[in-house]
Amino acid sequence: MFNVEERAMLRGRIAQRAVVQDRGFETECWISTRASQPNGYTKIGYRGRTWLTHRLSWSVHREPIPDDLVIDHLCRERACVNPDHLEPVSNRTNLLRGAGFVASQAKQSTCLRGHPLEGDNLYRPPARPNKRECRTCRIEATRRSKERAATRPTG
Ligand SMILES: [Zn+2]
Ligand SMILES: [Zn+2]
Fold first, then answer.
1. Which sequence spans correspond to the domains of the chain?
2. Does pLDDT of 102 surpass 50?
3. How far is ligand 2, taken at its centre, from the CA of residue 95, in Å?
4. Model confidence over 42-86: pLDDT tens digits?
5. What is the pLDDT of residues 129-155, one digit of tens each?
6. Where does the HNH nuclease domain lie (predicted)?
7. Distance 96 CA to ligand 2 centre (A)
8. Helix/strand/coil for 41
9. What string of DSSP letters covers 110-135?
10. Residue 85 DSSP code
11. Residue 98 C-alpha to ligand 2 middle, in angstroms?
12. What's the mean per-residue pLDDT of the chain?
């Protein structure tokens, strides 16, 4: 559905208008700040049509979504666009499993900025060992808050 360049560009557009928030799930939610529908799902315009941001996120981070599948939020946050918190579901699950659909969804966990959530970059807060956070983004956030503190006018 999308070529490699489009996927990269759309991942960037989704990240640009999303904030990382800890909503109590295993990893942080990527809450889309785009206009939302009354049902809580957010929208994004591309190629002259309107897409549901979470569905588009799944498509560009994972793979195209067959029309008869709905994307379920494991974290129950409808504005969340973190592909790790999304799961395609349908009544035809068994059929699709037979077609290798599930096998092809091999986890490619990354943070909102695309850093891998594995190896040295995976941070597990001691107080919440089940949580998985991005070490690079943590360091970056600490650095930025220090910078802000340093440049804050005094007196
Ligand atoms: Zn989420
Ligand atoms: Zn990161």
1. 4-151
2. no
3. 36
4. 999 999 999 999 999 999 999 998 888 889 899 999 999 999 999
5. 888 899 999 999 999 989 988 887 765
6. 53-94
7. 32
8. coil
9. B-TTS-BSSGGGEE--TT-TT-BEEH
10. G
11. 35
12. 86
Distance CA 84, CA 61 (A): 10
> Residue type at 39?
N
Ligand closest to the CA atom of residue 71:
1
Alpha-helical regions (H) of the chain: 4-16, 53-61, 93-98, 135-151
User: What share of residues in the chain are helix, strand, coil (percent, to 5)?
Assistant: 35, 25, 45
Give, as one character, the DSSP assignment of residue 104. G
Backbone angles phi, psi at 100, to 5 degrees: 85, 10
Query: Do 7 and 1 contact (CB within 8 A), yes or no?
Result: no
CA of 74 to the centre of ligand 1 (A): 7
Say which ligand is closest to the CA of 30: 1
Residue type, 57: S
